[in-house]
Amino acid sequence: MTWVLLITLVEIALTLTSLYLLIKDGSKPIRIWAWILLIIFIPFIGAMLYFFFGVNLRRQKLFDLKKEIDYIQFENFVKKYSAEAELSLLKRHDVTPAYLNLIRLLTRVNSSIITFNNKVRILNDGPDTFEAIFEACENAEKYIHLQYYIFIDGQLADRFITLFERKIAQGVKVRLIYDALGSWDLSNKMINKFREIGVQIFPFMPVRFGRLARLNYRNHRKILIVDGLVGFTGGINVDDKYIRGDEVLGHWTDTHLMIQGMSVNFLHFVFLSDWLFVTRENLIKPDMFKLMDNMGDTPIQIVSSGPDADYPNILQQYLYILYQAKEYVYIVNPYLVPDSTLSLAIKTAALSGIDVRIIVPRNSESAMIHWTVQSFFSRFLMAGVKIYLFQEGFIHSKVILSDDSVCSIGTANLDIRSLEQNFEVNALIYSKEETITMKKQFSAFQKNSKQLTLEEHSARPQIDRVKEKLARLSSPLM
Questions:
Q1: Catalytic residue among 145, 167, 193, 222
Q2: How many helices (H) and strands (E) does the chain have?
Q3: Residues 315-366 pLDDT 10s
Q4: For residue range 23-43, what is the model confidence (pLDDT) as tens digits?
Q5: Most confident of 88-102, 129-143, 207-221
Q6: Is 220 one of the annotated active-site residues of the chain?
Q7: pTM summary value
Q8: How far apart are CA 87 and CA 75, in angstroms?
Q9: Is 374 left (phi over 0), alpha (psi -120 to 50) or beta?
């Protein structure tokens, strides 16, 4: 058998297999057709790209064990607290009736109960966030649990090494999950250092030959829990660009959140379920969850999503906020590549007279992302959406707020990958005080941004339009 014949047979087998999996997929037709066209018109390469990035595992058995054990173990805690939470919800007047159904929806589909006795602190940028994180970790007595999409070598990683070595000597357990793809630059030397000092460190879905489809399902969460009492989440990774900037994009602006109170239990559960999936060690035990004393008075709901969920919970959260808005919806997000449902919701809100403002970076990490994001601007601007291009470096915050009533800070981007394929987590805060605090921060972001007008955008060069159209073709694949 000649090499040419062998390669041809392999190509045919890959093409037929990928087409069969696509037809069996059951996801959105536009996504399926985009992949089919890519596979047919770019033979072999298209099929390989599909196996790397397109295989839909949502309906497969990859996450079945994780899901079943997660909810069996957590069920008693949820039942014990849910009745009390519902009674508290009915007595509260600060949570507007407009969001009662959203709260119940997310409780039903995400097992996330709204909690009230919380204290939150909105953290802006890396230096403030890491100072708060290291201070909390210094007070750890039992354990420090953390997971990051990006955790790489550098000054911050070295500081964690020093801290962890000291705390482990005091009897504190340290458990760390890093995403195998996002933390691709985390060196074996650094991993070995962590292990030598006693950190239990594991990658989330390591990339191995024969499991290339797992490249498509990444853990994009950023979570840190100290003793089950303090929790952190938001957009900030463990990467030195958060404290000294990026050589290409400049200052790296982001938003993170520190939580104390009952909601830490639900954020902790997200980490523990991922730990179970990664290590098969079940730490989802009653002593990991605490019926805490009153820490504050901020209502919070932790919303997680991923390919192991029955519903796209975070997408549902965004859609509800957009359709429920009466006055305004403000959004900050670096990756504005919405699917058709989210795009329609944004335009519908603006067309109905809602003040919809979106802040995105002026520049992006890649030309493909930049032109894909730009490709959505025309229709948004024509619908009345106000778009602002952030000028002072790169803005990486993932924030949505509305009507001085609700704001969300978390890890999920407004792209198909975050909303359908990645493991994500948001903190949804039903508080006038915190929403107004975030609104002031949004105003600060807006002052460092340039508003893009429809006239200005319509006058862009023809070559830019071509780049946008070509990049837009890839959006269903993202």
A1: 222
A2: 18, 19
A3: 999 999 999 999 999 999 999 999 999 999 999 999 999 999 999 999 988 8
A4: 555 556 556 656 666 666 666
A5: 129-143
A6: yes
A7: 0.87
A8: 19
A9: alpha
What one-character-per-residue DSSP string does 290-337 give? ----------EEEEEE-TTSSS-HHHHHHHHHHHH-SSEEEEE-S-EE
246 noted as active-site residue: no
Is 227 designated active site? yes
The phi and psi torsions of 282 (rounded to 5 degrees) equal: -90, 105
Specify whether 145 is catalytic. no
* 3-class DSSP assignment, residue 398: coil
Task: Give the strand pairing for 336-337 and 355-361.
Answer: unpaired
Q: Which of 125, 153, 227, 339 does the annotation list as catalytic?
A: 227
Asked about 457 being catalytic, the answer comes back as: no
Among the listed residues 254, 403, 415, 467, the single catalytic one is 403
Whether the CB-CB separation of 478 and 416 falls below 8 Å is answered with: yes
- The answer to whether the beta carbons of residues 242 and 254 sit under 8 Å apart is yes
Which element (helix H / strand E) includes 121?
strand 118-124
Q: Position 435: which residue type? A: T
153 labelled catalytic = no
Q: Report the C-alpha gap between 448 and 42 in whole angstroms.
A: 42
Report the DSSP beta bridge partners of residue 305: 424
- Rounded CA gap, 272 and 174, in Å? 13
Transcribe 357-379 into DSSP letters.
EEEEESS-SSHHHHHHHHTTHHH
Per annotation, catalytic residue among 145, 167, 193, 220: 220
How many residues can be counted in the chain?
Answer: 478
What whole-number distance in Å separates Cα of residue 137 and Cα of residue 144?
7
CB 457 within 8 Å of CB 360: no
Tell me which amino acid residue 316 is.
Q
